[in-house]
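Checklist before submission:
- one chain only
- standard amino acids only
- sequence pasted in full

Submission:
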Amino acid sequence: MKIVIIGGGIGGMALAILLHKKGYSVSVNEKETKVPNIGNAFLMHSDGVSVLDMFSSYSTVKELPGKFIDTFILKDPNDTALKYLKLDPWQCIKRPDLINYLYSLLPANKIKSGRVFSHFLYEEEQVIAAVFNNGDIEFGDVFVGADGSNSKVRTTLFGKTNFTPIEVKEIIGVVRLPSVAQNHSHQFTKFLSQEKGLSFGFIPTSNEELVWFMQYDVKLMELVNDTPNSMRALCLELLKDFPEIVQEIIQANDYATSYIWNTTDFDLLPSFHKQNVVLIGDAAHLAVPFTSAGTTNALIDAKVLFEKIITGNDIQKIFTNFYLERAPFVEEHTLLGRKIKQTFLHPNKAQIDEIEIPLITHKESKNKLAPKYKKVHLLYFTDPICSTCWLIQPQLRKLKLEYGDYLEIEYCMGGLLPSWNNFKSGPITSPETAAKYWDEVALEYDMPINSSVWLEDPLPSSYPPSIAFKAAQMQDIDKAIIFLRRINEMLFVDSKNIIENVLLHKAAFEAGLDAARLMRDLEGKAQLLFEADLELAKSLDITSLPTFIFADKYDHSVVLKGFQDYKKFEEALLQLIPKAKKKPIKKDYENLFKIYPTLTTKEFSFLSDLEMDASEALLLDLFEKKVLIKYNSQQKGTIWKLSE
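Returned file contents:
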C-alpha cells in the first residue's frame, strides 16, 4: 500500500514518519520549495509530546526542543492575579525547530517539494493519483490531506468551507529576552482586559527566548496593512496601559519576523474522508487559537490514523473508525474555543471565576475503578492542625483502598482552635503544652511530627487553614483533599505556620487548584461554608476530633471518636453493610505511591503489611537508588515521594 500525503507540515510529517518506520511506502508532497519552517512557536499538550516521543528511537536527538511549561498565570492589566494554577504538562516549541526535527527523521527522497495540489485523478470513483500545478503526478492507494486550514483537498471532497467571521486577530512574535525568559521559566503568563477584547501573553521557548502574542477584537483598531511598522504601532497603541513587562517585550520585538493571524474556524465536518482520501489536522478541523489545540490535535490525528491503518484491512472502516474516535474531541475543542472567544469579546459578561483556561485539558479516560455501589455516607469531622487527625491517616487511607466502593466520605471542619483565649483540649492549654503533647504522640504512633512550630511561630487559630480548605472544596472536592494533605505536611513535617497566605497559595497550586481564586474565596463564601460546618458540628454534638459518623440510607449510624484501631472502622462499616467485602490492595511500592503520591513510613508499613523496620529498609534502599526522595521531620519520621 502506498500512502500519498499532501502537506509537509507537522501532522503530515508525523504520519509519514510513523508509516515509513513501519515499512509502508509513503510520499510527502509539500507546496514550499524548501523545508516549510516559517512560523513562530506554539504550545503542545503532553498528548502531542507523547507522539513525538515515539520518534526518539529513530533520532540521534534525545531531547525535544522547547521549554517545559507547567504553570498558568492570568492577570489583569493592573498586574493583579486572576488565576494561578498548575497545568497538565505542556511544551512550548518554536515551529522551525520542530519542523527541522521531523524532516530529519524521514529520508529526503520521500519528500517532494514545490508541489501545489491541483486535483485528483479517479478510476471507478477511487482516487488513483494526485496532480500538482507543476504538472507532477503522484500515484498511490491512499491519500491524506494534511494541507492546513485553507485545504484544497478539503474543498475537493466537501466543497466550499463555511468559515466563521473573523472577530479576533492575533499577532505573534518571538523575541530574545534572557532575563524575562529565565524569570518566568516554565510559566504561561497572560494579561486579560476585563473591559474590552484584548489580551497579551508570553511563554519561554528556551532560557533565552520567548514567544508572545496579542489577541484583539477587530473592532478596537484597524490594521491598515501587515507591515512591520503597522504591527508595531498597533501593539504599542492597544497595549499602552499594560504592565511594564509587556512594554519591554513589544519594544524589543523585531516585527519583521512577526505574523498576524485572522482567527476563524468551521463546524465539524460530517466525515473526515471520502472514498480513499482522508483529512487530518487543520484540514479536517480548525479551532480558534484560544485553546492551543491545533498542533496537539494534528499529532494525535497522525497517531490514531496510523494505528487504524496498521491494524485494519478495510480502508473505509479504517477511516470511519478514525472519525468516530477523533470527532468528539475536536468538536469539544472547537466549541470550547468559541466559548472562550465570546467571553473574550464580551468581558463584562463574565465573572472572574467563570473565565475558562485558554488551553485544552488532558483527555479523560473512563475510570474503570469508579465506585459501583456506594451505600454508606461517612461524615468526617477534622481540622488542619489536629494531631490525632494526622496520626489516623494510615487507617483512613487503608479504609479508602479496601472499602472505598461502599463509602462516600464528606470532609467537615471541626474548628479545633478558635484562639488560645481560655482554650483547653485534653492536656493542651497553650502553644507550649501543644509542643509537649506532639512530642509524646510522635514517639507513640510513629508518624512524623515536628513540634517546633509551637515554640517558634505558634498558630493563633486553626480557622484560617480551615476556611482555606472550604475554599478548596468550592473548586474541586478531590483536589481539596490533596490540599488538606499538603497543608498537613507543611505543618506536621515542615513545621510551617499554615495560616500564612503564601503557604496556602503554594499548597493550592501544588494540589492543582486555582491558587488565585482560592485566595479570593478566603474572604468570601468560604467563610460562610466554614461557619456552616461549625453549626453542623454543634448540632451533632461533636466534642472531639476526629469524629467519624457512618450512616446508611435508613438513618442507621455508627459514631467513632478520636484515634481508632483499623478494626473499629471495619466493624462500623460491617454493622451497616454486613456483606461488604474488602478489596485486595496491591502492596508493591509502585502501586501505593501511584495512589498516594506521598507516604510516611508508618503509612507505607500499614498499607503494605510490612513491619516498620522492613519498610524503613525498603524505602531507604529505594531512596539510595534515586527511586524515591524523602523529607525528614526534624524530630521524628519521614515523608517519602517518587522521584520526578
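Reviewer check: The first helix runs from residue 10 to 21.
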